[in-house]
Every structure is written in C-alpha cells, then in structure tokens.
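seq as requested:
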Amino acid sequence: MRVYCTEEFHPAGGGGQFITANALDALETLIDRYEQGVRLIYLDPPFRTGESFKMKIGKGKQAQTVVLYEDKLDEAEYLDWLKRILLGCHRLLDPKGSIYLHLDYRMSHKARLLLDEIFGEANFMNEIVWAYRSGGRATRCYPRKHDTILFYRKSKKVLFNIKAVGTPRGPERRNHMKRFIDEDGRIGFSIRSGGKTYTYYEDSLIYPSDVWSDIEHLQQKDRERTGFATQKPEALLRRILSASSEPGDLVLDLFSGSGTTAAVATKLDRRFIAVDQSPVACALLRKRQLGITSAPTLTDEAPHALTIRYPVDRTPCRISADIVSKGERRFVSLKKTAFSAKDAAPIYAASGYVEGACFHAEYTNCAPKLPILLPLVTEHTPVLHVVSVHGEQAFFTLE
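struct tokens:
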C-alpha cells in the first residue's frame, strides 16, 4: 500500500536539513523559526544568464536529461525577486552574522546597490574577486574569468576570523630576503628597507586578500563533481565558512544546487539549512551527505542527523517487489519501478519505517541497479522509498 510522507530522517549525514522549495517560500517559514538565529548566509542564485540549465543523469540507455532550473527573468523581475530574498536574509542573520552573495558581471553591480540599501553601506566588508581558469578564450573582449562575491555584515559585532583561513608562509624566500634560524630554532627571513628591518617566520600566516586566485574552478573529471552545471568547489566554501562562522553555528544556503555548502558545513562541524526548488538538488545533497562520515561517537555532542522535507508527491508509481528471507535476515527485493508510465530506473531506494508523515531511513542505496536487496530490520511495518531521476518519489508499506 502506498503512503505519503513530507519528511525523511537519517541518523547520520548532517547535522542539518534540506527543504525542497523555492527560496521565497522557504524564507517565510524560516523567519518564523530562525529569525536572528543564523550566523552565516551564502547565496549562489541564478546569475540572470537567460539560459536553461540541465543535467544528464544515469548511463547508457537509462540516461535521461532533466531540467535543473530556468534562469530567464527580465531585469526588473530579477531585482525585485533578489531584493525580497535579501530582506528575508537580513531578518534571519544574528548580530554577529554575515552574508556572501555570489554573482558575476551581469548583476553584481546592481546587487551591491540592493545590499547597500538593505544592510547599509557601512556594513560592506569586501567585494571578493574569485579568479579562475576554465573554458574557452574570448577574442572580442578580454576573457571573463572571474565571479564577484559581495560580503556584508549584519552589524559591527560581526564574527570574522581571518586567522582561520591563513596559510603558513613556508620555506620560499621572497624579495631577496635573508634566511636565518633564531635561538628557538624557528626558521625566518629578514630584509632591511628604509632604515627598518622586516622579519617573517616560515610558520607565520599569510592571509588571503580580496582576490582569490588560489582556488580553482572544478574541472570535468574532478572527484568533487556531481554533474550539477553551476557547482562550486568545496575549497571556496571552506574559506567562507571558516572565516565567518564557528563550530556549532547555523549556516544557510537558499540555492543548494549540488550541495557544496552542506557538505562543507558538515565537515567543519557547522549546522546547516539547505534550500532548493529542484528535486535533483535534493537527490544530490542526500547522496553527498550520506557519503560523508558523520556518525556520532560517545564523546561527540555535535548534531549529525539529516532531515529532508518536501511536498507530498502523488505522481503515479508502480513497483515490483517481494520480501525474501536469508537465514534469520529479511530483505525487500526491488525488481522494477516506474513513475507515470516512465520506465527509468530509480536513482535512490531505501528501506525503513514511517511515523506520522516522516520516513525513517535505515538502509539506503544512492545508486541502485535493479534488482536490489535492501535489509529490513525495523520492528515497525517496513516501508520502501524510491525516487526517480526526475525527483518523483513514492513510499510503499511492505506486508
């Protein structure tokens, strides 16, 4: 029998939550619960490119191309939409909080005017240039090889720790400096200029400026790649989260996309809220988070649970499945599934149980190849969860 859920719970894979919704709808709910409770917001919204972004999922005959999002608002609509998002973000940030808005040459200059209006010109921190090498080379103009990240604080109380993103100077000699070893055995370099002696140590930190050319754009065969068209590298988010948040802080991303913010937050022991209207983004985050080792230990008080929320999905679905036993263990054998007469294989399957409208996942498979066996260990009525390449999903009780 089919049951309907609006939430799923994983004991590991967080700590945080993913919400399947568009940014403005999600903000209404988030403000009610988290007003002035978010430490850091990273936004990587559509850039107003005029394009439709797609992704190929699966391999061979099972491969399908799905639409991720449409980026086709006219300028007035885009600016009104962005302004409402930024107003909501301002309400969510705590006094020590900050926001990083990631755009490119198309709208960054106009977005800065909105940020000045909403956050105040005095709360401008940086216009960060992320310079990278990728793609082709233009000949009608200089190649456009950078994005702009606008960094604003909520107030003068802002948390910002540049030491958290410093890197050791290292053994490289700079500007004809003289190398020496002091009485404590530390290796240093010195130079005399203008009647003064300047000294630096090998283990002293160098801090990034507002031009980030040391973080590479993801290449096609990069191990981080999920296939999402506008995916950002973890190194970029690691710098932002490290400098502007601390372990245990709450981080928000209203355009989750490939799930990079959530992945980095988990690895840095931050809590996260990730939002995206694309069900593909939901599937990517689930797969990525469940692949991160984040199960709690006896001495670990950090949150590790992953909660995913979505609207009820009543898309017609058929499955072919049996319960089989092997010794004392029981399994669900999933042989076939189809949504709305489509015969595509699922991209996710899980077994567990349902309480209320929440599915509690016990065993998951983020890359199922039918037929598959999923263990059944619950003392409750077992439930099977399947998801299609288009993000359609269904839950079935197994008797």
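The CA atoms of residues 94 and 142 lie 41 Å apart.
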